[in-house]
Amino acid sequence: MFTHIWHKEIRGELYTWKSMLWLLISSLLFSVTCYLLLTNKELSLLDQTELLWLLGKVIIGVGLLVITVDASSIITTEFEKETAESIFLSPVSLTDFVLGKLLAALTLWFAIFIVSIPYIIVASAGSHLAIPFIAYIALLGTLGVLGFVLLVFAISLFFRSSKNTLTTGLIILLGLSIPAVFSSTLKNDVVSQIISHANPIDNIFSSLDNVLVDYKVSLLENWQFIVPLVVFCLLALGLLAFAMYQFQKQGVIRSE
Amino acid sequence: MNMTAIISIKNLSKSYAGNKAVDGLNLEIQKGEFYGFLGPNGAGKTTTIRMITGILQGDEGEIAIDGGSVHDKKHVSRLLGVVPESRGFYEWMTASEYLYFFANLYSVPKKNQEKLVTALLSEVDLLKRKNSTIGTYSRGMKQRLGLARALINDPKILILDEPTLGLDPQGQLMMQQLLKKLSSAGVTIFLSSHLLDEVSRLCSRIGILHRGRLIVEGTVDELKQKTGMKDLTEVFLHLTST
Amino acid sequence: MNMAKTLITTCAGIIFLSFAFVAYAQAVPPPLSIQILSQNTLDGVAGDYVTVKGQITNAGTTTLNDVTTYLSLVDTGTKLPVDLEDWSAEKGLYIGSIDAKQTLPLSWQIHFVKAGTYSLIIVAEAGSNEVPQVSTITHFNVAPKKNLNPGQVLPVALGTPIVLLCILFVLSYRRKIEE
Fold this sequence. Notes:
The complex is a heterotrimer.
Chain A: H1 2-15, H2 18-42, H3 48-74, H4 76-80, H5 84-89, H6 94-123, H7 130-159, H8 162-180, H9 190-198, H10 200-212, H11 223-250
Helix pairs in contact in A: 1-6, 2-3, 2-6, 3-6, 3-7, 3-8, 3-10, 6-7, 7-8, 7-10, 7-11, 8-10, 10-11
Chain B: E1 5-16, E2 19-30, E3 34-38, H1 45-53, E4 60-65, E5 68-69, H2 73-79, E6 80-83, H3 95-105, H4 110-123, H5 139-150, E7 157-161, H6 169-184, E8 188-192, H7 196-202, E9 205-210, E10 213-218, H8 220-227, H9 232-240
Parallel strand pairs in B: 3-8, 3-9, 6-7, 7-8
Antiparallel strand pairs in B: 1-2, 1-4, 4-5, 9-10
Chain C: H1 2-27, E1 32-36, E2 41-45, E3 49-58, E4 64-75, E5 80-81, E6 92-98, E7 103-111, E8 116-126, E9 133-134, E10 138-143, H2 153-178
Parallel strand pairs in C: 2-10
Antiparallel strand pairs in C: 1-3, 3-7, 4-5, 4-6, 4-8, 8-9, 8-10
C-alpha cells in the first residue's frame, strides 16, 4: 500500500518540477564549490584531503537543507490542499501513509547523492579516496537525512502546517549546524564536548574528517561517530511514533 | 442497536471548545435507503458525516457500519464511498491517473482497472478530458471526478456531503440521475444537502438536524403532516427557525 | 631678565644635548644587520614556491640574544599590506642567540598566492634594547595562473547542471504530449 503513496509522490515531484529544481540547485552549488576548491588546490592553498572534506560538508549540508525543506511540506500539503481526507477514507493506514512519504523524501536524497558522485570523482582524482568518500557520504548522509526526515515528519503531524513545520525544522537544522562548524579549539570544555558528541551534524563532519584526512576508513574506526547518528535516528523515530499516536487520537480532522 | 440497519448511530456526541456540535444523535439508516440529511449551516451535518466515515473521533456514542465498528478501517473503507466536503485534488494528475491511484489504494485488481476507470469517467461525463490535468478542470468537473473516485471501490454505502454545491443545472441533473441509478441498483445513499427540492425528489426518508440534535425524521409526506406545512422548504424553515 | 637668560640657556643646552645624542647614535653602527642574497626581483606564477636567501650578521663585540626576523609584504598595486596567512610559514622566525662577529645563513620559502606585484622586506631585531634593522626590498612579480579547467572540473561543473536541465525539459515535453 505504501508503495502507491511513494510512487505518487515521486511522480508528483517530477511532474511539478519540484525535485528536478532541487537537483538542479544542488548541482549548481556543487559545481561552484568544486570549481572554487579545485582552483585553490591548483594554487596549492588546499591539500586534497582538506578539499574533499570541504566538498563532503557541502554535499551533506545541501542534502540536509533540501530534504528538510522538502519534508516540511510533503505531509502538511495533504492537509492544506485538503487531499488528506480522501486518502484516509481509503484503506491506507497512517503507517502506510508516513512510510510512503518517507521513502519519497529518501529518494530525493538518493538523487542528490547520485548527482554528487561525478563531483566526488573529479575532486578525488589522483588520490585513493574516491570510493571511501562515496561510501561514507552515502552512509553518513543517509543516516543524517533519515533522522531529520523522521523529526520533521513528527513536527508535521503535530502542527499540520507547512509554514510552522518548515520554520521549526530550519531552526533545528541551524541550531545543530552552527556548533558543528566551530573549530576544535572552541570545543575544549566539557559542555561543548558533550554537545559535540550528541550533535548528529558534528558527528557526520568528524567522521568525514576521520576518513578523508586521517584515512581511517573502516566502520570500526568510525563507530564513535556512527552510533550517535543511529541513536539520533532512533530518537526521531520515537518522536514520530508518538506524533502518529497523537494524530490517530485526534483524527485526520482535528477538533478545533 | 438495530442489526438490520446498515448505519447505526447511538448517542453520538461531539464538542468543539465546549460547544456541542453533535448532541446525543441517534440515527439508523436501512440498507438500500436513500436518506436525506438536512440542517442549517452549523447544525453538525459535516461533523456527523466525518464521524460516520471515521475521519473524526466522537466524544461519546457508538457507530456501526453494516454490523462492524466504524474504527475497523479495513471493513469501513471497503463498504463506504465518500464525497466529502473538502474537495482537494492532486492538480498535477490527470483524471485517469487520479482514478488509477485510488484504484490501487483500494486494491482493485490491475486487470480490471482500465475497464473500471473508463466506465466511471464515462458515467460522470469526463471521458473526453481523461488525459487533462485536474488543475485545468472547472469546479463542476472536479466534483464529478470526486463522485467517480467515491465509486472506485463499488461501495455498498455512498455518503455525499453537498455533492451538487456549485454545479450548474445540467451538472446537478447529471449528478441526481446518477444517484437515482445507484439507488435503484441497491446502493444505500446518505445525502447531506441544502437543496431541499433535490432532497425531496430523491430521498425516501429525511432527517433534519438542528443545533446538533435530530429534531425530526420521516418521509416528506410524514414531515408535512407532522408540521402542517405545504412543502419541505416550509417544514425546514418552520422547524429550524427557533 | 635673569630668569629669561636662564630659560634660554637651559633650552639651548637641551637642544645641543639632543643633537649630540643623535650624532652619537648615528656615529656608532648597530651591531645587527640583515642582507638579502637572492635577486632583488623574483618572477613567478600564482601557486609557485620561491626561496628567498639571506644572512644575518652580528657585527658587535657581544652576543646578541632573542634575535627574531619578521616578514612584511606589501601589495604595490593597492599599496596595502598583505596578510601572510598562506604566503609563508616563516612569518616570524626566532633565531635566538648570535655570537659576536657571527653570520648565520637564513632562507624563507614564499608561496605566490595571488597575482600582482609585491615588495618584501625583512625586519630583524635583537631583544628590546636594540634598534630593529631592515633588509633591502625584494620585489615579486606574480603572473596569474591561466588554467580554467583545474583537475578537469569544467565538464562536470557545467555538464551536470546541463544534463539535469535537459532531463527537466524532456519530462515536461513528455507530460505535454501525454495530455
